[in-house]
Predict the structure.
Amino acid sequence: ADDTIKIGYIDPLSGPFANVGDAGLKHFKYLAERINADGGILGKDVEIIGYDNKSSAQESLQILREAADEGVHYVTQGNGSHVGGALVDGVEKHNRRNPDNRMVFLNYAAVDPALTGEKCSFWHFRFDANSAMKLQAITDYVAEQEDIKKVFLINMDYSHGQAISRIAKEMLKEKRPDIEIVGDVLHPVGKVKDFSPYVSQIQSSGADTVISGNWGNDLSLLVKAGSQAGLDTDWYTYYAGGLGTPTALGKAGAGHVKMVTEWQENLVEDYDAPELREILEEFEQRYDGIEFYYLRIKTEMDMLQKAMEEAGSTEPLAVAQALEGMTMETPFGTVTMREQDHQLLQPLFISTFSEDYPKYDSEGTGIGWVMDAKLEAADTAVDSVCEMKRPSS
Amino acid sequence: MSQSQTARGALLWHIGIWALFALVIAVLPYIFTSSSSISMMSQMGVFIIFALSYNMLLGEAGMLSFGHAVYFGLGGFFTLHAIRAVNDGVWSFPLELMPLVGGAGGLAFGIIFGSISTRRAGVTFAMITLGIGSMVESSANMFTDFFGGESGISGNRVTDVTLFGFSYGPSVEVYYLIGAWTVIAAVAMYLLTKTPLGRISNAVRDNPERAQFVGYNTTIARFIQFSLSGFFAGIAGGLFAIMFEIMTAPNVGLVQSGAVLLMTFIGGVGVFFGPIIGAVLVTYMHTALSGFSEGWILYFGLLFVFMVMYAPGGIAGVLCVHAAPWRAGHLWRLLPGYLLALVPALLAIAGLVAVVEMGYQLSLAYDPSSPIDLFYMEVNATSLLSWLVALLVLAVGIAGVLGAARVVRARWAEVNRSMQASGAKT
Amino acid sequence: MLESIVFSVLNGLLYGMLLFMLASGLTLIFGMMGVLNFAHASFYMLGAYCAYTISSYTNFWVALIVAPLFVGFLGALTERFGLRNVHKHGHVAELLLTFGLVYVIDELVVLIWGQIPVDYAIPPSLDFTLFTLFGTSFPAYRGFILCVAILMFVAIYGLLVRTRVGMIIRAALSHPEMVGALGHDVPRIFTLVFAFGTGLAGLAGVMAGNYYITEPGMAFSMGPIVFVVVVFGGLGSLGGALAASLIIGLVTTFAVSLNYSIADLLAGIGLTLGNESIVGGLAHIDLSRIGQMLPYLMMVLILIFRPRGLMGARES
Amino acid sequence: MSDALRLAGVHKRFGETPIIRGVDLAVAPGERHAIIGPNGAGKSTLFNLISGRYTPSEGEIALHGKRISGLAPHQINRRGLSRSFQITNLFQNMTVFENLRCSLLWAHGYKYSFWHLVGRQAALNEAAEQWLERLGLTARRDVLASLLTYAEQRTLEIGTTIAGGADVILLDEPTAGMGLAERDHTMAMISEVTRDKTLLMVEHDMGVVFELADRISVLVYGQIIASDTPEAIRANAAVQEAYLGEAH
Amino acid sequence: MVNANMLEVKDLHAYYGKSHVLQGVDFNVGRGEIVSLLGRNGVGRSTTCKAIMGLVAPHGTIHFDGESVAGLKSHQVARRGIGYVPEDRLIFSGLTTKENLEMGVKKVGAQARWTLDDAYRLFPRLAERADVKANLLSGGEQQMLTMCRTLMGDPKLIMIDEPTEGLAPQIVSQVGDFLLKIAEQGISVLLVEQRLSIAMRVSHRVHVMGHGRIVFEGTPADLEADDAVRREWLEV
Ligand SMILES: Nc1ncnc2c1ncn2[C@@H]1O[C@H](COP(=O)(O)OP(=O)(O)OP(=O)(O)O)[C@@H](O)[C@H]1O
Ligand SMILES: Nc1ncnc2c1ncn2[C@@H]1O[C@H](COP(=O)(O)OP(=O)(O)OP(=O)(O)O)[C@@H](O)[C@H]1O
Ligand SMILES: [Mg+2]
Ligand SMILES: [Mg+2]
């Protein structure tokens, strides 16, 4: 009876994180439009419905119910692993209690390893590398840099930051035992206005490299404080490319800030990817000031399309079964949805924020991302403890 | 003789009202059947209890608290831990009574924090509650075993241990559980206002000094009232936990505390049923409006500011002002004025909505030049004309409301005068 | 060690002074009019955004003058058309009005400037290193902030605390109609004070917006802590606000840089604690993690033991 | 020992300033005792000391032979002492009836009960109704205290003071601001409702004082300079000079 | 044209919500004259003062020193030169005695007829309590304070509402002298009183109010002679 495929986008559309949520929604809408322009999936149009979860896990569960009422069988979310965790749990319960109205949760950015680890669920698929995998990429790269001697870890004081602090120490110890961890600090989330005290600590520790999973203002303020104090270290980050962060970083970040991502715009200069070039230019033109940041959203939509076409149906169970273990070609290599835990394995890149960028600058700052290294999909894999329970029918 | 008769009459009247309240709760799911409206109504029930418990402080005892969510949230966490314990087979306790666990938690912390904060009154009290609220919120980061860090604690409400044999998996069953508790808690809190403690709380609110000189220790009175209010907040939290099966740190935080303050105030602190109206309305706005418009916070803020300025007694206060003319049979004489005001008021609202929506379209939309649906019309936010029209409508509406307000005021004066005249006769 | 103490003191002072810029306006409004202006931090944010817009057309120095004036003007409008009408319903109503304004202002900022941080940068003329100490440079803009904060303190002190305006407003708190009957135009004075207070918040925004980040969440993150400062220092006491700002600035800074837990301290005197028990677990929490809680704890304690705050003249 | 109220060597200083400077006073049970004295002599302060609002800097106050100085107001009230205020001090947002009922609650032993419904306590309500009648406020039963006329508020002020059943009553300027008619009415009411009680009052209206009091003490600058029957006080030259002036 | 009367009130009406409290009050006060408003509790004497002061909305004509002041804000009325001493005193509780007095000053530095020293000389008690928070003053002290506070603003006419309430008999007679003294300085006085004795002693003319209207006007001697009025409207 449904003539459209509805995808519920559950992310903050109001409040402090609305900017990020809004940008994600635009990615989805834009990509859905492209699919529809090509005739849709199985002849049906894809419709993206934005729901505002106000960054709250409870709110998201409420929305899940609402979405189920409205005939939404696919939900997607990214901002906040706490919300992601609630949704994994919520979808699981929902499917158990309503077997004739099931839902699939496509996660495009919540990176807590637990979501594909101890909390893993058959109905959840993650299209972003989880934080352990990103750290794998960072530490692999760091291990090759001979001049790195002293590393400082500074992270936000919640599970995401705590995990990074823990895993980074393990991985570095294994890969480069000679590197000294000269500091390991957790700071309150979103509460610190003045990072100078932390910068003083970094400075007095003599660190040459900082690894940080910080995002948003907690990252910008940190880097800015460092640059004002004349701190001369390299920053290895997850989210320096996140919406608004390049603007906030400005010159303070140039030359020092690195990030690990599955994509940044200048990659189209390094690889042959005409379709991506077209997308990024069209997108940016369309949404003045917002950049095409999430390649993984395209991967997500493409894999969903492929799964539906393979399954020949939009029925959640069939589609989920088709997604399991699926592989797909991208301009950067093959990506695989690992069957064991529904974690996507994809190539990752380390890039530097530099005034010397190939073509595209970031948010009009005159500074852009330059690729340093590529990590192949297989090398990013980290073992998972997931024991997946699969539905019988 | 006649006095006991009127007393019996009053009793019947009260029972009737509460029976009606229960009946409405029972019937609603047959009218609004979708699962999202069931879940919205369940939330309303939870917040009715929460707002009523807040009014035990603000309305009844004059204590302005900025940290009431502490008791609500902790109650929820306790309940959820208890449910997990039952699921783990560590404990056995029927789900129907789980809110009592929350109540006990709320009560316990009400006693602990109440013994600190109720020693002071007024702004000092308010600031202490703000401080305690912030402390508890930030301590959620330290006690991750209890609060579960930023992902919170989740559980499964289907426990096998129940009194009535329902599974409480389906949300309708949970709705009825919440509904039953709403009736029980609301009646209990209503009766509480009629007890010596309730009266003394009023006395302490009005004039703490005098209350001492009629034999009461104001600190103790405030303290007991505060603890009991924590108990009911805890029950609300427990139901909330059952409903969502997840509790997170913000549930004990300032935003949640602010929300209950807003609800209670918008509903009206002066009348018992005020917070009920507030809880229903705010929950509706929160869920429904945020789906309709990106600007829901703005609308919400504007509504609130408007209420504070023109209806400080809340919605219940507005209703109560009309009770006297209604009883005197003069209400109909006010109607024409209101009808006259209605049209321009709708115009003004329409104008405002248009302006705000177009503003959001311009600054945030997916594609600013794409037309938006406004009042069954397609409006283009990038065209100057639509802005002019919207502003014009807004201006005309406001002018009309101001004009109509004069009429309404004149009508009121008339009604007052004739009520006074007839009052003088009797 | 010395190095980190010196820097912690410097950093603490600076943070404290920024807090003071916000707190001074709030203290004025709070202490003199009895209005708990919840929207104070929102006016601060408006100051930053206005400065951004103004400086993008002209330059920072123009913004430094015009933006606070404009924010003060908005404050005057708020008082004239909002607060004044609810004054008769008491302080709770006034407080709630400002509470509602927070929602409105914060949303309007998003509506006008969008959700992404704006690029409000430190003016090039102030973007240099003042001096270098222990290898760390001390930016000139920080020195500028310190100067402005001190000037602000002196100006407010001279202008208000020592003139009759303060007295008239305090009198009007108990019996405004009588103050009017003595020939003072109370409403106008109230408007001016509120405008002045919000103008100060605007100035703080101008100063801090580029030092930190100008984004829609900046009000929310600054609001509660400013309240703590004002209450801690004592309602209406400018000196108290200054002292409290500095204390809280220093305490939070030191809590961060002295990264110890109670267990570490105990270990220092030869006691070891496992972290299995609740007490042990508590003792193992780093000071830096408690740091964010400390100001609130300090506020609660001071309210319990000395309700008029550090230097407040009267009980709140 | 049998004195209803006894003050011995009571001093009160605010900071450096001594306000009460050694007051000894004994009031016998059933006595109607008036305190007069110039403005600022410390009469209200004395009341505040007795009723527990302030604690004496020195000296002792005893109620029926038991020491009460240092207790909190509510504790003193529970021992049977009640006071009214010079400036009306009612529960403004409660009705006349509720005001009276509130002042009866403790006396009827309800404490902080949250398991009794006040509406169903027959004895309590009856007592409140009776007080309405005695005060002549029955017609104003359901009016908010804040809407009463000044004289009615004063009446209610006295009513709330006495209703709780205390046997030692302190009245601070009960007829201040009343017209002649109201004053006479209030006087009659006071003497009626305090029939078997011990009464201590402050008044500037000499008519009232001389008519109602059995004994009068004159407080000047924190000290009692004379304490005697009305006739003797009227004749006392020192009192004439310190207080009454030429007017009388 | 110089008007002979300082204050002229014609057909003054005032309302509290629904109740019509003043129902057409007419009277005037000459320069340097002491005029008393007498009457029972609740007849509207205080309301008359408040209406003149603009604290209650006046309906009718009020001329002060030849100019209409009806409808002005109360601070404007005060600046024209009317001083008001309210019956409930309205002490500023946050301020000290001295600050309360200073509050009365409208223009700092202007040559004032009344200074702090004058106030202290008149009521030495105030000098003693100068730095005490005014809400801690005794009832009588507060009364003295309010009167002096109003005089500090140099009014041309002062309306005093029940100044002797709560004052010891000895001070009452001092207040009487005080009123005569300020009248000598050319300040007009509108005295609202309950106590006949003082009003009769100091007034040039007396008005008796009843039911929101003036029901008698004359000299104290006239009132003394008119038993009927006194019995009906004053209950003596
Ligand atoms: N808390 C206080 N702190 C300082 N001084 C005080 C305090 N309370 C009262 N006083 C002072 O003590 C003196 C006596 O005041 P009190 O109110 O007892 O006088 P009173 O005899 O009742 O006078 P009145 O007849 O005018 O009411 C006054 O001068 C007053 O200023
Ligand atoms: N704020 C008010 N609201 C309603 N009614 C009021 C108000 N103030 C006074 N009244 C009523 O108006 C009438 C006149 O009051 P007013 O104070 O002028 O009387 P008065 O002659 O000064 O008497 P008093 O001896 O009590 O001072 C009284 O009946 C009083 O109850
Ligand atoms: Mg006294
Ligand atoms: Mg009067």
